[in-house]
Amino acid sequence: MALAGIIAELAAFTWLAAAGIDTLDRLGQSARLQPVVAAGLLVGAVLLARGTIRLGVQAVNTFAVDAKAGLGRPPIGLFVADSGKGLLLAAGYALPMTAAVAALMEAAPDLWWLWAWSLWFATFVARTWLRPVFETQLFHTASRTEDPLLVASLARLLQRCGLQLAEVRIIDASRRSRRANASVHGFGKAKRILLHDTLLTELSPAEVEAVVAHEAGHARRRHILRYVMGAGAAGLVAAIGLATAGPWLGTTTSVRLAMFVIALPFLGFFLRPLALWALRRWELEADEFAVSHVGADAMAGALTKLYAANASAPGSDPIYAMFYASHPEPAQRLERLSAPRPDCMASFSTNSP
User: Fold this and answer.
1) Do 166 and 210 reside in the same domain of the chain?
2) Among 33, 50, 127, 324, which one has the highest count of C-beta atoms within 10 angstroms of its own C-beta?
């Protein structure tokens, strides 16, 4: 389905680039729209086309692929509500940003790209910080676990991991799927670890601790900060690229922005292997951190059950994995966990940065 989505986007955006954008731009000029308004309309049209295609791919994956794999399916109404919220959230972020960038391009022809990148990066950092508080709550209900023994054991674990201020919350993922997962969010010492409620039903308490220790490893190894800084660097390159290629993209601010939004995901596709390589490396680092606090057996048991619960394939085509796999192959992770290891893993102790 990933390939089908790419082909559909290429077809739609080839038409937009060849005729649709210029047609919409001429309509905007005939209506004497301000450049900021015209840019918002053109970019909005591009994002609507992209969102419609990706929503179709997501629907097929949810109601056909996942259902066939035994992962369940959400109620139609919930899927529609989630999709609507996602589209509104994306529009509420992208359209004001487009208008701001268009205004900067008009007002500061020489250095607009620097101011635009600064605005985008500040907004990106704010979204990353607020995601567990706002965006997650928009789609899920997050609560504390009611098991006092698990609460106490996780508190002791987080203290050993150097995350005394971290919070663990359970989100109602079972309303949508049988998949089980976890994630960590936040900057500084105040982290929030989110566990799917399906994870608690699949794993033993010791294995739940292993998953939390893995997420704590992401926090202690500063993977969130590395991700933000990497995204910031990529955004700066994109801003410089838009400023450099602007004259070749179109004659008006609105056309340049729309063409840039069309081209960016396809250009970024070729940078995916580098970004995904870093993500896979971070997963292995988090595994090692978890092993140093809960042991290899608990971590291996948790991964084995999670792979089964999520119907994960034992392996995939190397080329496909290079462009789409954010986690190492299951066999690779489990093999590393079963390998002999020294008694003391100082590099992954609680004194790690």
Assistant:
1) yes
2) 50
